[in-house]
Predict the 3D structure of the following.
Amino acid sequence: MKLHTYFRSSAAFRVRIALNLKGLAYEAAFVHLPKGAHRQPDYGALNPQALLPTLEDAGHLLTQSLAIIEYLEETRPQPALLPKDAPGRARVRSLSLLVACEIHPLNNLRVLQHLKRELGQNEDQVNAWYRHWIADGLARLEGQLARTPGTGRYCHGDAPTIADCCLVPQIFNAQRYQCDTTPYPGAMRVFAECMKLDAFERAQPARQPDAE
Amino acid sequence: MKLHTYFRSSAAFRVRIALNLKGLAYEAAFVHLPKGAHRQPDYGALNPQALLPTLEDAGHLLTQSLAIIEYLEETRPQPALLPKDAPGRARVRSLSLLVACEIHPLNNLRVLQHLKRELGQNEDQVNAWYRHWIADGLARLEGQLARTPGTGRYCHGDAPTIADCCLVPQIFNAQRYQCDTTPYPGAMRVFAECMKLDAFERAQPARQPDAE
């Protein structure tokens, strides 16, 4: 397997965690997002969405982090990253999508660049935008962890799931932008539990060969 | 089953299509998004994310449209909304997530309100933002439909999948904001095929009891 990744890409980070949790070795190909390497024709030939990550597996080109992780779950079921019961699976997916659809899309690189270049927002204003959507989304996540049954040592139960693969990169982003995380004790407790695991620790941006 | 819905919510629209495709009857409870009904405590007790839709099924409270549709797929497998092969399932999910993670989150109501109220954007500027992300995302979608194998009468093969449940509401939004859809002939062809089906037709905003 070959993963096209960038150390700071949250979506690639999710997949790195899932690969590590499943004990799958992979070759890394580095795509420098700020330099626009993902918009070059050679990368576009692999991934017409021109987004990170892409996973190559047995001649298949897989795109979108959550679709890739579901694929890994279907083709390499053990250890499972989804519970067995349908309502539990739905809860894990809902927590994952809360990060992937409600927080991260508002804060990714092309949106921040658009705010600067097209809307004329200065650095402080862009940072305020970033922190606003982190606070908005993490409050929703905290509410779901606190008020729906299923939360255990991790987001759902006592084994890591796809929800944890999404939560951890999002907390890294929050910390990088100096967001106040004290209003989210449940999420931060899960984050701390995850980071005790080698699979999460090894996947973090600073541990990647392309880290700057 | 009870679906908490709003006629103009794209995420609720996706689930309405999936329920119709699977021939599942449901009771509708209407949540008026512009009036902030989703932020009221009674709705928050059902859905701590305070987002639409929520599906109630056999005492389970299900949230996030794609998690709900995957749950329906697992609990009511026929007719299938995902292909059987893992790479095909990954492609359908990738197309779905392209809409759900890259286009729609940038254009939902709370983001447009934030642009107006906090960034002082006027109506023309908000509309330009809207159209920018539609154009950006639909170009990626068109590329994936044109350049990856699997596209058939619908986004993937000759039966509707979750990808079509996501595509159709997004095209409705594009048309509502008078976006130019001529650069996306593949996506528009699939859209036209979908709208020939009663399951899509009946799910559209104008056909809902709460339509204004």
Summary: The two ends of chain A are 24 Å apart (CA to CA). Chain A has a mean pLDDT of 97. Chain A is about 50% helix and 10% strand. Chain A has two domains: 2-79, 86-199.
